[in-house]
Amino acid sequence: MNSVLLAAIGIAMVLAGYFLYSTYLGSKVYRLSAHFRTPAHELQDGVDFVPTNKYVLWGHHFTSVAGAAPIVGPAVAVIWGWLPAFLWVTLGTVFFAGMHDLGALWASVRSRGQSIGTLSGRYIGARGRNLFLVVIFLLLLMVNAAFAVVISGLLVSTPTSVIPVWGAILVALVVGQAIYRWKLNLVAVSVIGVVALYALIVLGDSVPVVLPDTVLGLSAEAFWVVVLFLYAGVASVLPVWVLLQPRDYINGLQLFVGLGILYLSVFIASPDFVAPAFNNNVPEGTPSLVPLLFVTIACGAISGFHGIVSSGTSAKQLDKETDARFVGYFGAVGEGLLALGSIIAATAGYRTLADWEAVYSAFNQGGVAAFVEGGGNIMNAGLGIPASLSATILATMAVLFAATTMDTGIRLQRFVVQESLELAGLRLGKGIATVIVLVVGMGLAFGAGADGSGGMVIWPLFGTTNQLLAGLTLSIVAVILLRQRRPVLPVLIPLVFVMVMSLFAAIVQVRTFYTSENWLLLVLDVIIIVAAIWVILEATIAMTKARKSPPEIDDESLAVQTSVDG
Fold it and tell me: In whole angstroms, what is the distance from residue 46 CA to residue 176 CA?
């Protein structure tokens, strides 16, 4: 089969989801209203609560939620064939991810920007909230530590990406000043910023930065891990408009241009898939497609991390509630397109089936390397971009996605630490809370690996934990909708599916970890399973009570509802 046909079908499906299904969700389920005063205005403080142009906020949201996972997950999952991965990404984006991200954003906006963890206490009780916070903390720990390792590995393996990756910070600082202090035209600033980023990519391709084997007594990878954590810590305490928001916005534009180049190359080169639609010749030791497909591809189909971002930072910056459809649902569409591009690059970017099988000789192979290599081959064939420059573009894309997620992840974990300690009667400033987050994150990275690779120790649990958190987030959204007597099936059906598959996968992993005598992962997996089951039981009780209790009147439902903007 030709990849052009699959790309066209996939793009049409996710765009139809935005223009049709998200309109239904916005008008009938979440009932978005331009009259509602968002937390960005009600609690405006110039640091976390900042009313933001919806295109700028979309850039922040999209790059924060995407990370490396929508590249890694699909590029690993194609070991079962490209068709199962394609179906889960496209249908998941339309009916699962977009609805989940929009729902979490709406629920937080209607609750003065409170995080999904705090909302769990309000809607399913104190016990559920405490366990919910445990799951969130573990997920953020995995994201921050593991993404630092992914980025450091790419900076070492692709030294041509070093200059554009770190140069993007300077560009973002200038963009933030240009938008908020100098009040320059957004379109002009955006064009200049994207041109500057791509100029840095060309420069980086010509001037690779290779660190010595040992830097300050650390390996090159370990040195980058430390630098990344220190940078993310500083970025997390700055006002969002100074660095986090403009960095995510301009990176979002640059990354979408990169995706455009990749898709244009696909349409021009028109490569055929060399990998099978269904792979019946999987390597020995490969787990079964069901349920592992649905947790291997988390970001790109549905992801609990998105709910943390939606309620942690994006809800605090939403200018108008009607912007939530573009920021939340279309943010998921952007990630779905990235996952689709990863599937095509990892299955149509090789010359022969033998070449593809050589890469996918074992489960958990492929990943970013397959995306960069396969995508680079397609870009070279389609647009004639030199192989080295193609690899630099795609590696920079992967690093910037992961880095912006890490920026946001550190800030979100700081919020979780502060919220958790407040429940115990302790108040910490953001500086001390950030230090705690950095110590824990680097402690994992170096405590389980002297070279800084320890962040990957708990990575096998990321997908399962991520999907469990998505299900738990949907349970809160379902309780709110039931209280207000709104349509709940668009939330309830994905909720049941995600929870069944995630718990199934977690139980399968318990056996795997026990057989391999991986006691750390075994203990963490059991903790996550117990916490998830406990929270879902609490949520089920809350849903039952919500159905039987008098309907909760939403003040905004009495106002004149405006049409959801396009």
Answer: 13
